[in-house]
């Protein structure tokens, strides 16, 4: 890709050029078959992705937001229920909860992993909720709403700490739906079974996004729900196809949340490369970490716990001088991103909820300090050296002290 010497945050050109022949063949197949919605290409991708995630079922849908919304509904979350998640995520997480008719509450994140802090979840369940003696349901004392589910977000390619989250959910009778939209192929060491589990295989169900920039990205919008629950998978499929079990026989009111055949075919082709691409991302991350070693801790680097296999959808560093560093890198031709600059509880869209600065201090601090550096499988060593050198230049000469 010709970037005139600039290093982009994401490269969506090179992998598509490399796979151009294979991807064009998908379009030709769809044209010749006249099958654009559902059909064999969708079923083939669903089988392949279910196998990749080591689950029994995958249901392709129109987007990651659709996937989370439909998974919540199919799992039994009812209008008015509370779903607990984190404020350090993209707004699609809370949009999906709201669109399912539910109410969301937040707990803060872990300082190192940027994912749900199980201790904060425990505090929320123990201190802000109580069992209703009449129904046996867990109820939030302040809102009197039933707490029905937890949505841990696997962020930047890093799994959330699932063992304690699942233990708490089991203790309180809560549904766990994983938001795995940024973590295709990430793994977690699952202590109850003494083995590594893929994200998307531990909760009742999981939502994946295949937005073009993801580790597994479509050439447009696409998503999927993974689960080992046959009934839930059937329910998602029903809801995503206007509630019809067969044409014009609508058992419930659903929506149009289907995955189209061309995107499914493209994803199926790319899926064969995903393991290799993820390993390349891990190699790129390791090189960054080695190159940054000379900065003696002036820049905070990604943390990978012993129980996680990060797939580095993003390579996120931290500094108190984030905005100045970003301006410096932009001027030096290095692409960067901020994921995410405003925690959800402080977004204008949620002003009506009455949150204040300081309510979730870890998320707020992280939002002011994180910076995403160029990360993609095709990133070359010399490009990484340039990125790190530009950061080092800032630290040594321009960083406010």
Structure report:
Helix 4 packs across helix 5, helix 6 runs parallel beside helix 7 and helix 9 (about 260-290) crosses helix 12. The chain has helices at about 15-20, 20-35, 40-55, 65-75, 90-100, 120-125, 160-170, 230-240, 260-290, 320-330, 360-370, 380-400, and strands spanning about 55-60, 80-85, 105, 130, 140, 145-150, 175-180, 185-190, 195-200, 205-210, 225, 245, 250, 310, 315-320, 370-375. It is α/β, with parallel strands linked by helices and about 400 residues long. Strand 6 (about 145-150), helix 7 and strand 7 form a beta-alpha-beta unit. The strands form 5 sheets. It has a 7-stranded mixed β-sheet with strand order 1-11-10-7-6-2-3, with helices on both faces. It has a 3-stranded antiparallel β-sheet with strand order 9-8-14, with no helix packed on it. It folds into 2 domains: about 15-270, Type I PLP-dependent aspartate aminotransferase-like (Major domain) (Aspartate Aminotransferase, domain 2), CATH 3.40.640.10; about 275-400, Aspartate Aminotransferase, domain 1 (Alpha-Beta Complex).
Which helices and strands occur, and which strands form pairs?
Blueprint: H1 14-18, H2 20-33, H3 40-53, E1 57-61, H4 64-75, E2 82-85, H5 92-99, E3 103-106, H6 118-127, E4 129-131, E5 138-140, E6 147-150, H7 162-172, E7 175-179, E8 187-190, E9 195-198, E10 205-209, E11 223-227, H8 230-240, E12 244-246, E13 249-250, H9 261-292, E14 308-309, E15 315-318, H10 322-331, H11 361-369, E16 370-373, H12 381-398
Parallel strand pairs: 2-3, 2-6, 6-7, 7-10
Antiparallel strand pairs: 1-11, 4-5, 8-9, 8-14, 10-11, 12-13, 15-16
Helix pairs in contact: 2-9, 3-9, 4-5, 4-8, 6-7, 9-12
């Amino acid at each position: 890709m010709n970037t005139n010497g600039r290093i982009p945050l994401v490269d969506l050109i090179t992998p598509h050029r490399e796979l151009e022949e294979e991807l064009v063949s998908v379009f030709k197949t769809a044209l010749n078959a006249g099958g654009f919605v559902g059909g064999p290409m969708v079923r083939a991708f669903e089988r392949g992705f279910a196998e990749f995630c080591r689950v029994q079922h995958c249901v392709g849908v129109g987007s990651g937001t659709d996937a989370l919304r439909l998974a919540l509904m199919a799992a039994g979350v009812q209008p008015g229920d509370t779903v607990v998640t984190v404020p350090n995520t993209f707004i699609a997480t809370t949009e999906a909860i709201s669109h399912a008719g539910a109410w969301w509450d937040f707990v803060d994140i872990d300082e190192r992993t940027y994912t749900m802090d199980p201790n904060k979840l425990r505090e929320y369940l123990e201190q802000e909720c109580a069992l209703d003696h009449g129904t046996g349901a867990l109820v939030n004392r302040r809102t009197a709403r039933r707490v029905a589910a937890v949505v841990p977000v696997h962020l930047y390619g890093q799994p959330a700490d699932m063992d304690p989250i699942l233990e708490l959910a089991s203790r309180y009778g809560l549904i766990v739906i994983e938001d795995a939209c940024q973590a295709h192929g990430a793994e977690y060491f699952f202590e109850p079974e003494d083995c590594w589990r893929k994200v998307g295989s531990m909760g009742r169900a999981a939502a994946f996004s295949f937005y073009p920039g993801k580790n597994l990205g479509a050439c447009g919008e696409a998503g999927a729900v993974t689960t080992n629950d046959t009934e839930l998978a059937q329910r998602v499929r029903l809801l995503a196809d206007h509630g019809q079990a067969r044409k014009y026989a609508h058992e419930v009111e659903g929506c149009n949340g289907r995955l189209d055949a061309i995107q499914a075919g493209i994803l199926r082709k790319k899926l064969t490369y995903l393991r290799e691409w993820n390993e390349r991302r891990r190699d790129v991350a390791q090189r960054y970490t080695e190159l940054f070693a000379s900065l003696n801790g002036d820049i905070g680097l990604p943390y990978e716990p012993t129980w996680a296999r990060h797939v580095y959808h993003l390579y996120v560093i931290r500094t108190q001088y984030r905005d100045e560093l970003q301006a410096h890198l932009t001027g030096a031709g290095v692409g960067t991103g901020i994921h995410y600059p405003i925690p959800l509880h402080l977004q204008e869209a949620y002003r009506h909820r009455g949150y204040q600065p300081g309510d979730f201090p870890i998320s707020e601090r992280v939002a002011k300090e994180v910076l995403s550096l160029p990360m993609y499988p095709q990133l070359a060593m010399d490009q990484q050296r340039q990125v790190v050198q530009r950061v080092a230049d800032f630290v040594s000469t321009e960083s406010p002290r």
